[in-house]
Amino acid sequence: xxNLEPPKKAGALINQAYQAASQVLRPISRKYDRAEHxxxxxxxxxxxxxxxxxxxxxxxxxxxxxxxxSSTKDSSGNRNGGNLSTVLxxxxxxxxxxxxxxxxxxxxxxxxxIASVANDEQLARFGKLWAAMxxxxxxxxxxxxxxxxxxxxxxxxxxxxxxxIFVTSGQRADAVVVWATLDRSAGRAAIKSLVVEKxxxxxxxxxxxHKLGIRASDTAVLRFDNCRVPKENLLGSPEVDTKKxxxxxxxxFDNTRPLVAAMAVGLARAALEETARILEEAGVxxxxxxxxxxxxxxxxxxxxxxADYEAAYLLTLESAWMADNRxxxxxxxxxxxxxxxxxxxxxxxxxxxxxxxxxxxxxSLLEKWARDSKILDIFEGTQQxxxxxxxxxxxxxxxxxxx
Length: 403
Description:
alpha+beta, Butyryl-Coa Dehydrogenase, subunit A, domain 1, Butyryl-CoA Dehydrogenase, subunit A, domain 2, Butyryl-CoA Dehydrogenase, subunit A, domain 3, 3 domains, four-stranded antiparallel beta sheet, three-stranded mixed beta sheet
């Protein structure tokens, strides 16, 4: 049974991540929000430290995913492993700055994809790369099964053709995990992910996007024009199994959606803490021993936001804990992502309101956090898609039965 408190053995990791967030990320947060697309050189100094934490087998403070253990191993008792540790570290780092975490070398969402579905040989080859993940296309947003980028087998290679948009770290990363179809007529089952390294002929970074939030993180448009990728770069099995369907690549989301939920939880906590400080300076006391309706209106609103935060936090821990204990967590991962994504937008915007004029100016980070929050409700599956997945799981419907 899940314990609602962070495990004691994660204490050192949480403290290290918090120190990195407070001493490195938070002080340069505004600087790189203003200097969009400039690479935060300060991150290089402790990227190696995060590499060491992740390679320890218990996860680290970055956004990289972890591998699921074989179900043949001893499964007695509860396990608090890499998924939960990485989620806890991500919460602390995003308390510092979401965009700077996404800019961390070798901590990209593509790394989570590699950890989720790569075989041991591929993990050895690609585990040290900084990998972005390319899913979305100009005509394919939330419906990942509608991907049109093709990977055609040709000798000992696959030939990639297509365009990807909104690729986080698409310019800076060493490689990109590209989702493509091996056979359009086979539908979802033919969607596979391939690792394409920078410098591969036919692989071009077209442009960088200017964005509402997470400006320190580069978001790129990529084009693949007869780009030849070695067969051994296809993650997982190349077999197109219509019975298994989309399950192989969707396992990636079971690992990365809790991470995005953790990003939202960390950002929401930052906004709540700053708002509590502002309210206290204004003489507004939040009393946890009194009913909300008998307190100052601002205090009552704050209590409501804090309850929303706690719900998102616990759902996020549950989804990660289930992955560590080899339990199917697709439903919980989508619930955590849906709840945290919606809550962080509501919380940051309400915090801006509660802080008044101070919350709307660049004197505070509240206005930045409000801008940063929206992407966390969109990428890795929008709010609407998460609710659809949850509905399918709860009602026992297939994607064809419930669209």
